[in-house]
Amino acid sequence: MDRQTKMADDATVSAQEPFEDPRLVSTYADLTPQRVPGFFDLHRMALILLSEQAPQDARVLVLGAGGGLELKTFASERPNWTFVGVDPSRQMLGLAAITLGPLLDRVHLVEGYIEDAPSGRFDSATCLLTFHFLNRAERLQVLRQLRDRLKPGAPLVVAHHACPAGADSEEWLARSVVFAAGSEADPAKAVASAKAMMERLSILSDEEEVELLRQAGFAKPALFYAGYTFRGWVAYA
Ligand SMILES: C[S@@+](CC[C@H](N)C(=O)[O-])C[C@H]1O[C@@H](n2cnc3c(N)ncnc32)[C@H](O)[C@@H]1O
Q1: Which residues of the chain have pLDDT under 50?
Q2: What is the reported pLDDT for 120?
Q3: How far apart, in Å, are the Cα atoms of 199 and each of 102, 145, 178?
């Protein structure tokens, strides 16, 4: 199956189901960095934002930590930090453990949802490539729970599919699909994939994203990363 067909296929199952699929999990670590513009730079940019006011021994909450790719970057670059990684998919947590190898010493992986994260105050938190699976009401609830677990003023970094304000989400999503498909890209197929993804994902505009962060009590929400529909914000508890 070509990458583009597979991406559309992945988008036709529900939010948690795809991450229980051994086929998706086995290719996740290789394919995701190719599909998301500036994937590793997103991690580096996030880390800079998380580091700005972090103590030497920062505790970081990583929600949607399956696969372990951002945890690997963070833990490699910050040897004194410790992490809690939360994800409902046992398979994706298994992959995270493999990805992390010896770095797992400083990472506590929790199978579950934000409610299952320890309630102690963290120095920062991230939620990457996950919020588009949650509808607006679910996101608001999760954002509030994230804020409750952060020290006052601590940064939250999120990045997921979203759409430039006033733009056509489907058209922008199709561009992301073409990017993801690489040399195999077929623009007509990309439009069909984007349509399927629109039905499964919750795509908000930049304005709605900022509004949601504010509604959850976060301050100074700001866009720091944008690659077609992959877009990232930092905001402060
Ligand atoms: C596309 S992966 C992103 C994984 C990782 N953050 C990354 O950037 O590579 C989405 C992850 O979100 C997890 N997930 C789905 N629903 C979730 C929820 N309600 N809370 C936390 N994680 C969730 C999935 O199990 C999956 O591991």
Answers
A1: 1-13
A2: 82
A3: 40, 26, 18
Report how far ligand 1's centroid is from the alpha carbon of 130 (Å).
5
Tell me, what DSSP letter sits at residue 105?
A: G
Which is nearest to 72 in space by CA: 112, 43, 36, 92? 43
Which residues make Cβ contacts (< 8 Å) with residue 217, sequence separation at least 6?
A: 144, 147, 237
One-letter amino acid at 95 equals L
Residue ranges and CATH numbers for the domains of the chain are 3-236 (3.40.50.150)
The H helix count followed by the E strand count for the chain is 9, 7
The residue whose CB lies within 8 Å of the most ligand 1 atoms, and thus the one to mutate among 91, 130, 131, is 130
In 3-state terms, what secondary structure has residue 179? Answer: helix
Gap between the Cα atoms of 125 and 140, Å rounded: 15
Whole-number pLDDT of residue 35: 96
pLDDT for the residue 11: 39
- Say what the pLDDT of residue 9 is: 40
Per-residue pLDDT at 2: 42
CA distance 45 to 51: 10
Put simply, whether the predicted model's pTM sits higher than 0.85 gets the answer yes
* Contact between 90 and 116 (Cβ < 8 Å): no
Pocket of ligand 1 (CB under 6 A): 15-16, 19, 32, 63-64, 66-67, 69-70, 87-89, 92, 113, 128-130, 133-134
